[in-house]
Amino acid sequence: MSALDEKTKAERALKDLKRTQGEQQLSAQTKEISSLEDTVAALKEDYERSLSAKAASQKDLQENLITAKHELLRVQEQLALAEKELDKKFQQTAAYRNMKEILTKKNEQIKEIRKRLQKYEPDD
Question: Which keywords does UniProt give here (predicted)?
Fold first, then answer.
C-alpha cells in the first residue's frame, strides 16, 4: 500500500513538475514574444522617424535647388545685361568706329575686285 502511495505521490510530483516546467516555458515564451513585439514596435517607430526625416530633408533639398535655379537665372540676366552694356560702350569708341569703317571699305573693294575678275575669268 505504501508503495502504491509513493507511486501516486511520485506521479503527482512528476505531473506538478511537468506543469511547472510547462508554465515556466510558457512564461519564458510569453516574455520572449513580448520582447520581440517591443523590438518590432521600436524598429517601426525608428523607421517612420527616419522616413519622416528623409521626406523633410528631400523637401529642403528641393527648395534649395529651386532657390539656386532662380539665383542662377538672375545672375545670367545680369551677365547678359552687362555684356550688352559693354558691347554698346565698345561700339561707341572711336577705334571701333574707325575699324568698322575700314572693314566696310575693304569689303566693298573685295566685291568690286570679284566683279572685275568675273569679267575676265568667268566660271565654267
Answer: Coiled coil, Cytoplasm
